[in-house]
Automatic annotation (TrEMBL):
Pathway: Carbohydrate metabolism; D-tagatose 6-phosphate degradation; D-glyceraldehyde 3-phosphate and glycerone phosphate from D-tagatose 6-phosphate: step 1/2. It catalyses: D-tagatofuranose 6-phosphate + ATP = D-tagatofuranose 1,6-bisphosphate + ADP + H(+). The keyword Lipid biosynthesis does not apply. The keyword Membrane does not apply. Keywords: ATP-binding, Kinase, Lactose metabolism, Nucleotide-binding, Transferase. Residues 9-292 form the Carbohydrate kinase PfkB domain. Belongs to the carbohydrate kinase PfkB family. LacC subfamily. Belongs to the carbohydrate kinase pfkB family. This is Tagatose-6-phosphate kinase. Its EC number is 2.7.1.144. PANTHER family: 1-PHOSPHOFRUCTOKINASE-RELATED (PTHR46566), ATP-DEPENDENT 6-PHOSPHOFRUCTOKINASE ISOZYME 2 (PTHR46566:SF2). It holds the Pfam family PfkB. One of its GO terms (biological process) is lactose metabolic process. It comes from the Bacteria.
Amino acid sequence: MSILAITLNPAIDVVYEIENYQQGESNRVDRAFYSPGGKGNNAARSAKKNTDVPVIAMGFAGGGRGTWLEEKLQEEGIQPHFIQTGSETRQCIAVASGNETTEILEGNFSVTAIEETRFIRELKNVIAAHQVSVCTISGSFPQGVTLSFLQDVMTVLKDSGVRVMLDTSDLRLLELLTYEPEWIKPNEDEIKKFAAHLGKEADSVLETARLLLDKGAKNIIVSLGKQGMLAVNQTEAFQVIPPHVETASSVGAGDATVAGILTAAEKGLDLEGAVKRAAAFGAAAVTEYRAGVVDPLKVSECENQIERMPLKTEGSKQ
């Protein structure tokens, strides 16, 4: 059995640590970190540090940056299976100063129909060869990626019995809910955007989550920042609250929560156990400057301090 992380739009993540960053001024970098990025790759790296099962990374990668990205993932024990593209992999920069982080994200990475076809072929091979049991599709989608391609990816995963996490703000997520993903993980802003696109008005995050359950998702896990996570399915609804920790950088914290869910699923934990583990991963992640760095000891420490708060509507759609 293995964990698969799909990052269709990966990046080289650069973190500049600057003690006293001044907007509009020349700033000297105190420390710089470079890592293979993109939400799925961050989740893969967090998972690898906290599980004994193989972790595989897939996506599109191009140029010298793409080659570097694959090499670095391999150095961290992750098995890369990226489709080479004619477009250069992006670079994304985060400036960390005090408790604040400013992100600068490159765009314009694109893929072709031929590259999409190669991806589907490789996906089938990877699932068969590595007995993939759980998978996340994380992050934004490159230019040129079609809805039919995304549907083909979901079809392959579903037909293979792979439990799928969708973690993207792309509105095409709504078209993929008919494939009954095991989990989706929006934040508050994203879940409101999804509801607005559906033409629905909801008075609460919980009510909005119910709308997405009705569309086919099995479990909705909403990131609430420092307030933890809200989990909803057809039978229960609850919130978990992580302990207070000193924040170094919030970059990649959401991706760490995805890793928490995937590793929990691999261990056979139920929804409550998975969400508590996810919240612990997120809390441990923000104590690090580099995305994807999640110390198992910190996870264990945080997990023991997670609080569960049942919601008034638990066990009911009322």
